[in-house]
Design a protein that fits this description.
The protein is α+β, with helices and mostly antiparallel strands. Helix content is 22%, strand content 32%. The chain binds calcium ion (4 copies).
Length: 315
């Protein structure tokens, strides 16, 4: 009898032990699962490392890249690190409505668009969409100037895979005939490329020249059927204002190439004269006391500039 009771106890013990063992096993598996999930989260964090977009480093207004308005190929960006900001700048003129658009947003991209003026005042911002949604900021310019657009992720800590997006600035237009004007801007004396030149056409298109002097005006609106002329303007402090008529006389012409040469006007008096050459000379040979004149000598100023100015005076 006693033996039978012991056998029964052992059997119950084995059964309970078996179940307990499975409970421990389950707990063990659960622990492993937790550990693995922790490992996975670290792994996925590492996997989030993606190549930065080609406009980096552009995390502040000072490093903003130039964006072409109405560009057929929108700029492709991403958020490759936490707190990434992508800044662009454009030249806007009063009375024109601009659409600043984040399109093709990746499924982890929740973009915020912010618009600033030259003095760091925030003019407008928009954040209507969530992850994977596009954004659009519509703004009518009231004062002709350079403006800045900052794109950031709504969640500062979000970055990596699927945070890509495309950025474009458009001027809404009726479907008529269009052509593009592209070219390069150089110093008339030294032939050095000139960047940051503000370009405008009589048809309200604008551009800013790139560091290599290239500029691009997209979708110049051509209204007439056969022949039309436009004026293109280029301005930069320290140079004589430039303007030139451009003729569009071919309906099938899609691209007009137009090279621009700017002439130095060191003291901003609107003419090139001996005073420009004297200021340049004083700056180059480091003579001090030019007086309280308002002037600007470019970084690459050299003796060739002075000779060029003197030559233009004797012609
Ligand atoms: Ca970026
Ligand atoms: Ca950036
Ligand atoms: Ca958003
Ligand atoms: Ca001058």
């Amino acid at each position: 009898m006693k033996r039978r009771i012991i056998n029964q106890l052992v059997m119950y013990g084995l059964i309970i032990g078996f179940y307990l063992k499975n409970i421990f096993l389950l707990f063990f598996i659960f622990e492993i699962g937790l550990a693995n999930s922790a490992d996975y989260s670290i792994k996925s964090k590492n996997d989030q490392i993606i190549t930065e977009d080609k406009y980096e480093e552009d995390d502040s207004k000072e490093f903003a890249s130039i964006i072409t308005i109405n560009d057929k190929n929108p700029q492709k960006h991403n958020f490759h690190k936490a707190q990434d900001e992508d800044w662009v700048k454009f030249y806007a003129i009063s009375g024109i409505e601009y659409q600043i658009c984040v399109i093709n947003a990746g499924k982890n991209c929740n973009a915020v668009i912010e618009l600033f003026d030259l003095d760091d005042n925030k003019i407008k911002s928009v954040n209507k969409g969530l992850n994977g949604d596009n954004e659009e900021l519509v703004w009518k310019c009231e004062k002709k100037d350079i403006y800045y657009v900052k794109i950031k992720h709504y969640d500062n800590d979000q970055y990596g895979i699927n945070t890509e997006y495309s950025l474009e600035i458009m001027i809404p237009k009726a479907p008529v005939f269009f052509c593009d004007i592209i070219g390069n801007i150089k110093d008339s004396c030294t032939e050095y490329p000139i960047d940051e030149v503000k370009i405008e056409t009589s048809a309200s298109q604008t551009a800013i020249s790139q560091p290599n002097g290239d500029y691009s005006i997209q979708f110049l609106e051509v209204k007439s059927e056969s022949y039309e002329s436009y004026t293109i303007y280029a301005t930069k402090k320290g140079y004589i204002d430039y303007s030139k008529q451009i003729f569009v006389n071919d309906r099938n012409l899609e691209i007009i190439k137009h090279q621009i040469y700017l002439k130095k006007d060191i003291n901003f008096n609107g003419i090139i004269d001996l005073s420009d050459a004297i200021i340049l000379l004083q700056e180059i040979v480091k003579l001090n006391d030019i007086g309280k004149q308002d002037y600007h000598v470019h970084n690459n100023a050299c003796i060739a500039d002075i000779i060029c100015i003197l030559n233009s005076l004797v012609k």
